[in-house]
Amino acid sequence: MVPAAFLFLDRWPLTPSDKIDYRALPAPAEAQTVSSAAAVVPRDRWELWLAQQWSDLLGRPGVDLDDNFFALGGHSLLAMRLMAAIQQQLGRSLPIAALLQAPTIRQLAAVLRQESGPEPWSPLVPLQPHGDRPPLFLIHPIGGTVFCYSDLVRQLDAEQPVYGLQARGVDGDDRPHNSIAAMAAEYVSAIRAQQARGPYLLGGWSLGGVVAFEIAQQLRRQGDQVPLLALIDSSPPINEDRQPEPARLVAAFVQDLAGLQGRRWMIEPGELDAVPADERPSYILSRARQQQLLPADISPAQIDRLIEVFRAHLVALHAYVPATWEERAAVLEARPDPDIQPRHTDAWRSWIDQLEVSQVAGDHYSLLRAPQVAAVAAWLQQQLALAQERSADVDEAASAAQHS
Fold this sequence. Notes:
The radius of gyration is 23 Å and the shape is globular. The protein has 12 helices and 9 strands. Helix 8 (246-260) packs parallel to helix 9 (280-290). A 7-stranded mixed beta sheet has the order 3-5-4-6-7-8-9, sandwiched between helices. It has 404 residues and is of the alpha/beta class. It has 3 domains: 1-120, Non-ribosomal Peptide Synthetase Peptidyl Carrier Protein, Chain A; 122-239 and 320-404, Alpha/Beta hydrolase fold, catalytic domain (Rossmann fold, 3-Layer(aba) Sandwich), CATH 3.40.50; 246-317.
């Protein structure tokens, strides 16, 4: 039912402990009336509060209960700000991945209405759990979250279940893995909890492709089939065991944040020369805040946690030495300029015996945003269909062998 009144507030009244003081809200008589013919509007305090947050974070004066946070421009940092506000003002603790499972005001309000405590942390995040096909598992990139896949998942067939694997350390106080093999082993356990036996469908963008590569190796050694290993613009293993220099690490972290937001950022040549070496990381973060790549209200602790995840994953990538994959893998490469040769193909051929390479216009970050994401989804849908055919052929061959 649609409410007869709607409250517009400049700010929420708060209690001395910084929680919302609902008793201090204006009476309904002071509110503006809303026609029943209007767009769907908030129906209770949870939806009302979330509608205000959606509007503030996304810079939109009006949002519908069923507007998708990510379709409106939301990203991982905005999700962190929303979860921090929920903790501070509503006294509820939700993992940032909850927004991927409930990306609308209506859905997230339903989560907030539940009085149950927080779920135990799991790397497995249901991105689109519906459908009876074998699920696709997409592995996080270097930043550790799986928000980057939200547009891609919406472009895939509605009957294709998709699960993301997020990194340890993004939420809470857990230390992130600094080994690709250890990371993959944890994800194999999470994947098996969802799907006990193969065939398995794996993919990942950027670092996620490298981790998917190791997951495939571990599953294959355990006797399972992996008919799909999809590497989306993934650099091959680097194999140079070294620690990243702090200023370069923070600069790479900020560049990655900029790319995920569809922006470009870099330090000008010589800009850091006058900055003492131990102050350069702070200087870079300050510049990022000035350019609004980092929200002003995101806490230093949150930034430190994200940088530590980024650092651990970079160390893991540098140290990883994989085994050769003797089966098929599909690589999709971004090609921002048709005159530039593909960057990763030859290097991947050193590790993969049967490599199928495709290309799509765009750069590393634009691949997962409109309009390029439609081409990536079409390619991935084709790879899923081919994987299904290969699985059917394997089953048919196994059945024939049993009856021969």
